[in-house]
Amino acid sequence: VAALPASAEVSIASVARYIAERETDPWMRVKALHDYVADRVSYDVESYRSKNYPPQDAETVFRTRRSVCAGYANLLAAMGSAAGEEIVVVGGDSRNNGRDLTGEGHAWNAARIGGRWTLLDATWDAGSVTEDRFVKKYSTEFLFTPPEIQGLSHFPDEERWQLRSPPLSRGEFLRQPLMRPRFYAEGF
Fold first, then answer.
1. Could you write out the DSSP letters of every residue in the chain?
2. Could you tell me the pLDDT band of residue 182, with boundaries at 50, 70 and 90?
3. Could you read off the pLDDT of 80-97 as tens digits, one per residue?
4. Cα separation of 78 and 73, whole Å?
5. CA–CA dist 128, 110 (Å, integer)
6. What would the mean pLDDT of 13-42 be, rounded to a whole number?
7. Is pLDDT of 59 > 60?
8. 148 neighbors 139 (Cβ within 8 angstroms)
9. Half-sphere exposure of 107 (CA within 13 A, CB side)
10. Is 103 left (phi over 0), alpha (psi -120 to 50) or beta?
11. pLDDT(32) > 90
């Protein structure tokens, strides 16, 4: 993704084709699509704060390089489709430290790789929002996150996207400790 030439960045299809042609491993291909979206899109703090959102469709986000979570998820799904990968948008609620613990609307993705579904959130992997601006800081904390870990902060509208059995009720989701994936990745 870092070496992507400007000539390949003219459309969603051209970026997806470039990535698909160079990455044969499906897990790494989906990671590269995730990385492109997390790296190239900046969070639109102004529209988030005002709750006045511009279009969040994939083409607009690709062109403007600004979005809230819905645009990140829509762009990643469109790029997946163009690259021959099955990536869907998942809507629901998320919760963060310091925010309303009952959650707020959020969108992320699920991808089918090798016959199984996995979860990813390019928005949360792109950086963070301070009081008045977006701080770009790429990570993979929410890339292929196990459902039990992602489910601590993300609660989908459709229970099937919890990818766990049995699924949690909303009350069970809200009673869980609010932990980040890094906590578990560090072996705690």
1. -TT--GGG-SSHHHHHHHHHHH--SHHHHHHHHHHHHHHH-EE-HHHHHHT-----SHHHHHHH-EE-HHHHHHHHHHHHHHTT-EEEEEEEEE--TTS-TT-EEEEEEEEEETTEEEEE-HHHHHEEE-SS-EEE----TTEEE-HHHHTTTEEESSGGGG--SSPPPHHHHHHS----HHHHHTT-
2. low
3. 999 999 999 999 999 876
4. 9
5. 21
6. 97
7. yes
8. no
9. 16
10. left
11. yes
Tell me the C-alpha distance between 146 and 9, whole Å: 31
The distance of Cα 61 from the centroid of its chain, to the nearest Å, equals: 14
Q: Quick: pLDDT tens for 125-179.
A: 999 988 889 999 999 999 999 999 999 999 999 999 999 999 999 999 988 887 6
Please answer whether residues 161 and 90 qualify as being in contact, where contact means their C-beta atoms are separated by less than 8 angstroms: yes
CA–CA gap between residue 49 and residue 47 (Å, rounded) = 5
